[in-house]
Design brief:
The chain is α+β, with helices and mostly antiparallel strands. It is built from 11 helices and 7 strands. It folds into 3 domains: 2-90, no CATH class; 113-184, Orthogonal Bundle (Helix Hairpins), CATH 1.10.287.130; 192-342, Heat Shock Protein 90 (2-Layer Sandwich). Strands 1, 2, 3, 4, 5, 6 and 7 form a 7-stranded mixed beta sheet that branches.
């Protein structure tokens, strides 16, 4: 409608201007129709050019101004916007490019928001589930005791021990959540020192002696010589505990093996923790470091754990400005590898 109105306005103005110019000039040139027509036509072309240019520029400016106001969320002032549009550096082609870029950026933001919303829903669901299980267990044990089981001293002790185990699990979940939150907010100060990583690995292996024997899993450190790194000793010990425990937990039922290797990488060392366990399916590999994500939920809960271990591992390694990677074949085994800076 606006374009049709503008076209009619231009045609009407041009016709009237030409006729008036022809009449006025014809009188001045004493009825010399040829000269009058030439002069009137020249006047008409010049005047029409000015008017049409003004109307079109005004129309385009209004349209482009609206576009830019939408693109830049009204952050550009009228003066700056006018200068930007009138600048020789901006035109319809440039406007089209900026609109395309704006659409692409917003599409990415929308996709990211959708993914984050989905992650938020899954995360809340996982937190609720992890907390609900021990809470309901504790509630069940206490209710049973209140209903009369306390008369049996043996049963009372048994249920109290189970309730205590449930409380310990709740405490572990809360502590792990607190650790991840602090790591994400950079509120954990690292105590960087030089230490022998092989000795730390041996200490962790010793701490899993009973569990590894129970699961019939051999833990092997292939590198026996001292290897000095610069890192937070306690945090790296926490990383090793999580990775080795995972290797034991997900090993096959018999003759399992967790192997720790150390590789010299110029200014870094690469520490790999591998197992001959059940492995991870390809679709799960990109998500194993997410909070509460479990590749085998039934097996994970059977052997305990909060579902936050690998997420903590990733945050600790990244807090050291180092990298962690994962290789796995389903049914064959998994290899976790992380780097640490060499100790001077």
């Amino acid at each position: 409608m606006r374009t049709r109105y503008l076209s009619i306005l231009i045609v009407a103005f041009s016709t009237i201007a030409f006729l008036l110019g022809l009449i006025i000039i014809n009188i001045n040139f004493l009825n010399d129709i040829i000269k009058s027509t030439i002069v009137a036509l020249s006047f008409f072309i010049i005047l029409n050019y000015i008017v049409v240019r003004y109307l079109i520029r005004k129309e385009i400016y209004e349209k482009v101004r609206t576009i830019y106001k939408n693109i830049y969320n009204y952050k550009v002032s009228k003066i700056d916007l006018k200068q930007k549009i009138k600048s020789s550096a901006i035109g319809l082609d440039q406007t089209n490019k900026e609109v395309d870029k704006w659409i692409e950026d917003n599409s990415k933001q929308i996709d990211k928001m959708i993914a984050l919303e989905q992650y938020r829903k899954e995360y809340i669901g996982n937190v609720a589930h992890e907390l609900k299980t021990p809470i309901f267990n504790i509630q069940g044990y206490i209710s049973t005791l209140i209903d009369g089981a306390m008369e049996d001293s043996h049963l009372t002790k048994k249920y109290l021990l189970r309730a205590e185990a449930g409380i310990d699990r709740l405490i572990a979940i809360v502590e792990d959540l607190d650790t991840i939150t602090k790591l994400e907010l950079n509120e954990v100060s690292l105590d960087i020192k030089r230490f022998d990583i092989t000795q730390v690995i041996r200490d962790v292996i010793d701490s899993f002696e009973f569990k590894s024997q129970e699961r019939k899993v051999n833990i092997i450190l292939q590198h026996q010589d001292p290897v000095f790194v610069e890192a937070d000793k306690n945090k790296i010990k926490q990383v090793l505990v999580n990775l080795i425990e995972n290797g034991i937990k997900y090993s096959k039922d018999e003759e399992g093996e967790v192997r720790i290797k150390i590789f010299d990488m110029e200014d870094q060392y690469l520490i790999e923790v591998s197992d001959h366990g059940i492995g991870i399916e390809e679709k799960d590999i990109i998500r194993v470091f997410e909070r509460f994500y479990r590749t085998d939920k039934a097996r994970s809960r059977q052997f305990g754990g909060t579902g936050l271990g690998l997420s903590i591992v990733k945050h600790i390694i990244e807090a050291h400005n180092q990298t962690i990677n994962l290789r796995s074949q389903y049914g064959i085994g998994t290899v976790f590898g992380f780097t640490l800076k060499k100790g001077e």
